[in-house]
Amino acid sequence: MRLGKRLGTALALAGLVGLTTTACFGTTGNSASGGAQSVVFSNTGGALAEVFKQNAYADLAANGITVSEESPNNEAKLTAMVQGGKPTWDVFYATPYTAIGKCGKLFEKIDYSKIDTSGLDKSQMSDCGVPVLNSYFVLVYNKDKYGANPPTSWADFYDPAKFPGTRGIMNYPKDAGMETALLASGVPADKLYPLDYDRAFATLDKIRPNLKFYDTGAQQTQALQSGEIDMMLAWPGRAYDAAKSGANLGVVFNQPLKYFDVVTIVKGAQHQDQAYALINALIGQKNQQAVVDRIPYGPVTSQAHQTNNADIDAFVSNDTKAKGTTVIRDNAWWAENLDEATQRWTKWVNG
């Protein structure tokens, strides 16, 4: 298979063929046996990292490469590492626009001759970012709270008079608070960019007394599971985790905001050949299929198919469910305007 060929190429480049096959997750540097080589992956943790460990990392272990993880994937820490000249991370899980905006600064340019790109959407590939996961931001709500009158749109999410209750949003500008606020205020999906900050924050102000911010996916799951919040601008994977633990949740597929994540190679990474091997394992058919069979996300390779699990599928958005209302994020705009958007968001949150 092509993944095996790419892994073999990366291993040959590193001089690692024929080395030990023992995986030692959570360690860095050479293994105790002195044989296996290590690659350090900074990612989001949680169920997604568990799938990676059971599939992509296991395949690497069979070829003599161990994977060490650190989470969360904090960009400020990454920046300090790169500026210090000795980064300890090799592969970094990122947004596509961060990979575009920080290409050559925080991230190495990808040598695509070392990547198996068959099955990938070429429009999602950038100079420094390789697509690894497809998903959508969706509105998730507590069915017990709203009963026979559930929310059906972003306008309902931002209308606490019509739909009383607490709201949850991740405390990052990237997590669609501004975009969904603009959609709720009537901005057409194809006219979102450039973002009208003032209009977005005027809409967000409507739910400010009812709003709770979260910093991690684990907090998002806990808030949904405990009933701490009644509606969430959610990552579907974290909402699904809450539902598995008993939360009675509904999902609104009206105007889901499509996004994808990428993996990057850290500027000055110490184990770049092993980093390429890890990326190939992450985007390969086996790992991608395992992701969609375990978590409500979409594969980045056409070699994997959508899940057949009905419980998972209940949280998976697609254009059929969205009835043609899917909203596409402008990653080029975000790459150019991320710093300003972050400053505006932080000022509003702290204001």
- Give the name of the CATH architecture of the largest domain: 3-Layer(aba) Sandwich
What gap, in angstroms, lies between the N and C termini? 55 Å
What is the percentage of strand-forming residues?
Answer: 15-25%
| Helix-strand topology string | HEHEHEHEHHEHHEHEHEHHHHEH
Model regions low in confidence, pLDDT < 50 over at least 5 residues: 1-35
Instruction: Give the structural class.
Output: alpha/beta
Sum up the overall morphology in one term.
globular
Radius of gyration equals 21 Å
The first-level CATH class of the largest domain is given as: Alpha Beta
Quote the CATH topology of the largest domain.
Answer: D-Maltodextrin-Binding Protein, domain 2
- The CATH homologous superfamily of the largest domain is termed Periplasmic binding protein-like II
Number of strands: 9
The profile of the biggest β sheet is: 9 strands, mixed
Would you write up a description of this structure?
- The chain has 351 residues and is of the alpha/beta class.
- 39% of the residues lie in helices and 17% in strands.
- The chain has helices at 2-14, 46-61, 75-84, 96-101, 143-146, 154-157, 177-184, 197-204, 217-226, 236-244, 272-283, 285-294, 310-313, 319-322, 331-350; strands at residues 37-42, 65-70, 91-94, 130-142, 167-170, 211-214, 231-234, 249-265, 327-328.
- Strands 1, 2, 3, 4, 5, 6, 7, 8 and 9 form a nine-stranded mixed sheet that branches.
- Helix 2 (46-61) links the parallel strand 1 (37-42) and strand 2 (65-70).
- The longest helix is centred in the last third of the chain and has 20 residues, at 331-350.
- The protein is globular.
- It starts with a helix and ends with a helix.
- The model is unreliable at 1-35 (pLDDT under 50).
- This is ABC transporter.
- Keywords: Periplasm, Signal, Transport.
